[in-house]
Amino acid sequence: MIKRTLTVSLLSLSLGAMFASAGVMAANEPIQPIKAVTPENADMAELGKMLFFDPRLSKSGFISCNSCHNLSMGGTDNITTSIGHKWQQGPINAPTVLNSSMNLAQFWDGRAKDLKEQAAGPIANPKEMASTHEIAEKVVASMPQYRERFKKVFGSDEVTIDRITTAIAQFEETLVTPGSKFDKWLEGDKNALNQDELEGYNLFKGSGCVQCHNGPAVGGSSYQKMGVFKPYETKNPAVGRMDVTGNEADRNVFKVPTLRNIELTYPYFHDGGAATLEQAVETMGRIQLNREFNKDEVSKIVAFLKTLTGDQPDFKLPILPPSNNDTPRSQPYE
């Protein structure tokens, strides 16, 4: 009995030491692992999921949140700039919605303070979904199935843009991607990364990339000028934070993007100007770090970046309620 108790105690101590060691390892790195999220209000998140996928929030009845932030494609649309109402070209590359709850603000220029405020923008933007908040409210309120869900979640069946965006934001907060190879390495699995991936991380860290790309999201927590050492050449007219602050010093300052799931979210940069990860790494080294990475270094950094791909959102697609005689008609060609 004493021997069995001693064995169990030693095992407990060993496991405790192992988990403590993994915790110390993660704490000593500039990047931290992502943890799975349980929604604060599961019913609200489910309502938000329906609204996220509902194209009737747009004037055309064709564009949903998922159109530009496709959850089958890394939370983006994988094109240079998004396509809006009547095939209008969007002004900027669509950032991923995955792990976006970890951003200090939303949009490349940080003009929305949180996911709720962000969700309201595209609905009424004439170059995106091109509807109005008032029409969106009427569309959703016209369907009794939606009203029932609003009553369950909010206590009354009143449909407002505030409630619509609150629900969408609650759903988006669940879109985190734990379980990446790099997270497993951070958590103590020394075999999670191969030699090239580990060397790539050390290059990434040693070259200074982690000054901006750090924390659980590997970015998203600060703003930085695009072109610190050398100017970034682009035809895109976006000027970043200057549009928000009016300060000339903020010209070409953008929110640092998350690098989580970066292999899925091409093309890269605010203008979609880098088609491949290799091109993005080479450009960032040159204009942000004043460093010319050689081909082997680029290859190893890219190998590391691909270890940041986590478990993608996995859920049952919502079945949306049908429109009825009271539902405002879509206007796809107007």
Features:
mainly alpha, Cytochrome Bc1 Complex, Chain D, domain 2, two-stranded antiparallel sheet
Task: Describe, in short, the structure shown.
The chain is an all-alpha fold and 334 residues long. Helix content is 39%, strand content 2%.
Tertiary shape: globular
Strand content: under 5%
N-to-C order of helices and strands:
HHHHHHHHHEHEHH
Could you say how many structural domains there are in total?
2
**CATH domain class name of the largest domain:** Mainly Alpha
Structure overview:
By secondary structure, the protein is mainly α. The chain is built from twelve helices and two strands, in the order αααααααααβαβαα. The chain has a two-stranded antiparallel sheet with strand order 1-2. The termini are far apart. Mean pLDDT is 94; it is low at 1-8.
SSE topology:
Layout: H1 2-27, H2 42-53, H3 65-68, H4 115-124, H5 133-141, H6 144-154, H7 161-172, H8 181-186, H9 195-206, E1 223-225, H10 242-245, E2 253-255, H11 277-288, H12 295-306
Antiparallel strand pairs: 1-2
